[in-house]
């Protein structure tokens, strides 16, 4: 397999992913865990603009309604968003891959029944299951959270991974079952190879590239579910809720993750469009980066098709063309005369 680092698609996607992930830790280390707050801008002793401030050199993505810098909030929350999405997909694959191989090899006779039981799950939005299971964990009660941010993120990752494990396991099981019917697998069975050896020596190496692509697809799907939960005001790491009946603030994200930033600012789309557009653009860039990495990895596995170079064509003048035609006619006449002499 050619190195994936020679593929521009993979390098492009990895660069965007590393910028947000590594940049989030560096940004917090340099500027601290809390974004700067600017209530208003003044010029010549007069207030010219109040929060939310529009984008400027000082605030590239503007500020929110409380004066907090949106770029700082996006950078601080990038690590929570990326790590959570990759964690959900990783846990999902760790559980689904062994189950899928078991469905495709050990439970072949029951595979039709298993698939018929799992198929209805394709038509049920995973956001509904996620919301019902995560609401008791992420919605802040009146007495406050009894868990830390990272503990809630771990619980969310595990629950969101378990929800779609049957669907992913069914896909892997169907692919493993097709490979299990191949002739080289039958030859291995004839020579005495057991199912564990067939899985580790044949099925897994043959499906390794497809599993990587499936992992990337699960990361993208998780990011989409995060945005849906954000619109439902259920944020990664927990939703801070104010129960003050007189001066209560709307629900907001604790970890500044992108789903929370998008969901809490979506109602400002018409009046202050830069508030929801910032997290939405970052979500789009992250999904584009993962898709580019998948495309680059696929190209590296399959090999890059090289386009043959065109041969250089020399243009001849009309005199040269006439001279070549004369030479060709003379040679044809000589050949004709030689044949006539041979007949005589």
What does the model show?
This protein is mostly helical and 344 residues long. The chain is built from eleven helices and four strands. It has helices at 8-31, 70-105, 111-118, 126-138, 149-163, 165-180, 183-190, 195-231, 258-265, 274-302, 318-343; strands at residues 40-43, 46-50, 239-240, 252-253. The longest helix has 37 residues, at 195-231. The radius of gyration is 31 Å and the shape is flat.
Kindly report the average pLDDT value.
83
Give me the secondary-structure category: mainly alpha
**Measured on Cα atoms, how large is the radius of gyration?**
31 Å
- Portion of residues within helices: 55-70%
Poorly predicted regions are 305-316
Tell me the fraction of residues in β-strands, as a range: under 5%
Number of separate strands:
4
Strand order of the largest sheet: 1-2
Shape: flat
The SSE string, one letter per element, is HEEHHHHHHHEEHHH
Report the sheet with the most strands, covering strand number, pairing sense and barrel closure. 2 strands, antiparallel
Distance between the termini: 68 Å
Name the CATH superfamily classification: MetI-like
Question: What oligomeric state best describes the polypeptide chains here?
Answer: single chain
From the 3D coordinates, which CATH architecture would you assign? Orthogonal Bundle
Number of domains: 1
Number of helical segments with 4 or more residues:
11
- Reading off the top of the CATH hierarchy, the class is best stated as Mainly Alpha
